[in-house]
Design brief:
By secondary structure, the chain is α/β, with parallel strands linked by helices. About 35% of the residues lie in helices and about 20% in strands. It has one domain (about 20-350): Rossmann fold (3-Layer(aba) Sandwich), CATH 3.40.50.1820. Helix 7 crosses helix 8. The protein binds zinc ion.
Length: about 350
């Protein structure tokens, strides 16, 4: 029988190759004008792939729902309007010392948008239980990185992404805090010609509007940090929105071929057409020359190191071409799919 059966692995390997690269980044030696044109046309192409752009913003309306003082910071639960009647809940962490200095005539503060991966949502990266109680231990793979950034002096905004935490369908809330609504939301959006990635990107853009409007935040010193699915959302947002001045993408940068197309991943990763246009390095290339830090666990089994290194080597060309080779940095640490933070927090502090 064997000789009559088509080798499907080989067939799809061929399909991968045939579809790559309508918007692949130019050769490093290509003229500056060709690179500039690539950036412009691919940004437009990426918006088309993500669907739902341009983002039409109504005037920002903010409600502060809760305020909780902790020893060195205050945590606010806020909510602001996104697109089409959507309300975006977010946790805002404000360092007490930085705020005191600002009020005494000192400088505005640096800020970071923190994007959680799959799990319990924004509570999980801010040191809280899913019920919102302060959690003394059990930080999990996301290592409370939003809280860690606040403790280093950043204002941190953690917006809840559709599908996670406070923004889930009732049926998933009943199943427990870790049950996402990604599958039904993503597939429903795809059937309506939209993508989960695009919706999340627009919500992050709206979150940038909110951060920039805060009087104690330096609007020119806002960065981003995201892990896993949050890293993917940050990648697409930073590629399109230059208000994100420095970014840390943890456990997400790889090649589509080695990760999303080879290993089981959440439905929220799938963007129609994108593989006909680009590999992940081409998306990340749109972030150059702005400072970018990639974190990857050597044993991350859903974003394999082989793909991470291939992606990074391609990306280096875009940074060299932009005259900003020093703005791209990386930390391959011992461990799996998780936040490291051993170099990345300092990177944001130094680059913003
Ligand atoms: Zn998901």
């Amino acid at each position: 029988m064997k000789h009559t059966i088509q080798d499907m692995d080989a067939l799809f390997a061929g399909l991968y190759q045939a579809h790559q690269g309508a918007y692949a980044m130019p050769a490093e030696e290509a003229d500056e004008a060709i690179w500039q044109n690539w950036k412009k046309t691919w940004r437009d192409g990426l918006k088309k792939d993500l669907r739902g752009f341009p983002y039409k913003a109504a005037p920002l309306q903010v409600r502060v729902l809760q305020s909780r003082p902790f020893d060195t910071y205050t945590m606010y639960l806020v909510q602001y309007n996104g697109e089409a009647g959507m309300l975006i809940p977010a946790l805002l962490l404000v360092p007490s010392e930085g705020l005191r200095r600002y009020r005494a005539g000192g400088p505005k503060m640096k800020a970071v948008i923190a994007l959680a991966g799959h799990g319990a949502g924004i509570t999980e990266i801010c040191g809280l239980t899913p019920e919102g109680e302060f959690r003394k231990q059990g930080e999990g793979y996301q290592k409370d990185f939003a809280l860690a950034l606040c403790q280093r002096g950043f204002v941190v905004l953690a917006p809840e992404m559709p599908g996670f935490g406070l923004r889930r369908f009732r049926e998933d809330c009943r199943k427990g805090p870790g049950q996402s609504s990604c599958f039904r939301m993503s597939t429903n959006l795809l059937m309506m010609g939209l993508t989960m990635a695009g919706l999340r990107v627009r919500d992050v853009m709206r979150s940038l509007d909110y951060l920039q409007a805060l009087p104690f935040v330096d609007a020119g010193r806002i960065g981003g940090m995201g892990i896993s699915g949050g890293g993917t959302t940050l990648m697409y947002t930073a590629a399109l929105d230059e208000r994100l001045r420095a970014n840390v993408i943890s456990g997400a940068a790889c090649t589509y071929a080695d990760s999303i197309l080879s290993i089981f991943h959440c439905t929220d990763n799938y963007v129609p057409d994108i593989y006909c246009h680009a590999e992940m390095c081409d998306v990340l290339g749109l972030i150059a020359p702005r400072p970018l830090f990639l974190e990857a666990g050597r044993d991350d089994d859903i974003f394999p190191l082989r793909g991470v290194l291939h992606c990074a080597s391609q990306l280096e060309a875009a940074y060299r071409k932009a005259g900003a080779g020093q703005n791209l940095a990386m930390d391959i640490f011992e461990g799996g799919h998780q936040i490291s933070g051993r170099l990345s927090y300092d990177f944001l502090m130094n680059q913003l």
